[in-house]
Amino acid sequence: MGDEQKIRRWLLAVSVLAVVAAVAAWWFSPGQQQKRWTAALINAVQSGNQKAVQAAFDDGADVNSRDSDGITILMHAARGDQPDIANPAPSDNPEIVELLIHRGADVNAKTDSGFVALFWAARYGHARVAKVLIANGAEVNVKDKESMTALRWANTNQHTKLVELLKEAGAKE
Fold first, then answer.
1. Which residues contact 42 (CB under 8 A, 6 or more apart)?
2. Vertex 118, ends 54 and 124: CA angle to 5°?
3. Residue 105 · residue 63 · CB < 8 Å
4. Repeat ANK: residue ranges (predicted)?
5. Nearest to residue 38, comparing CAs of 48, 53, 51, 23?
6. Nearest of 114, 64, 124 to residue 92 by alpha carbon
7. Helices (H), the chain
8. 63, 44, 66, 64: which is closest to 55 by C-alpha?
């Protein structure tokens, strides 16, 4: 084998190692790890799996992290798993919401459009979640960029129990 061929093989080997090192550095970078922890935490809160939520925190997940759409973990918990406006009960997990709040979740965090966790609970009729959010300082009269409120979301989707709860907490039309 000639010297030129040895040099080419050596350069190829070094190039492959450089690519592997770059991919590994990216994969294990703090930003990528946080994205994976956030995704795991979102799945855990939506399914109501408290053990998985705790495991995600133990691994380093941030309770106030956001998905690529700017939706917080608490908002995902308030929304639930594949919510059905007509049948919200299966994804109403107030225990998960309490756990997140006790871990430091911001109950009044907003998306770019002004959505808050209480809007998700109101939209899908999650009265038990709304009650926990309100008890922990959720603003009941906050408006998004379209001037929607939690009360309007609950009214629009005909969640009468939630409408009553919001009005008792001081929500206005």
1. 67, 73, 76
2. 90
3. yes
4. 69-112, 113-145
5. 53
6. 124
7. 3-27, 30-47, 50-59, 73-79, 94-102, 117-124, 127-135, 150-156, 160-168
8. 44
Dump pLDDT digits (tens) for 85-136: 555 555 678 999 999 999 999 999 999 999 999 999 999 889 999 999 999 9
**Cα–Cα distance for residue pair 77/69, rounded to 1 Å:** 15
How does the average pLDDT of the chain come out, rounded?
A: 85
Q: How far is CA 93 from CA 45, 118, 121, in A?
A: 8, 13, 10
Amino acid at residue number 113: S
- For 45-71, the pLDDT digits (tens) are 888 888 989 888 888 888 998 988 999
Structure token pair of residue 100: 């997140």
How many Cβ atoms sit within 10 Å of the Cβ of residue 97?
27
pTM attached to this predicted model: 0.78
Cα–Cα dist 163/157, whole Å: 10
Closest CA to 138 of 162, 166, 112: 166
Q: How far apart are CA 116 and CA 84, in angstroms?
A: 19
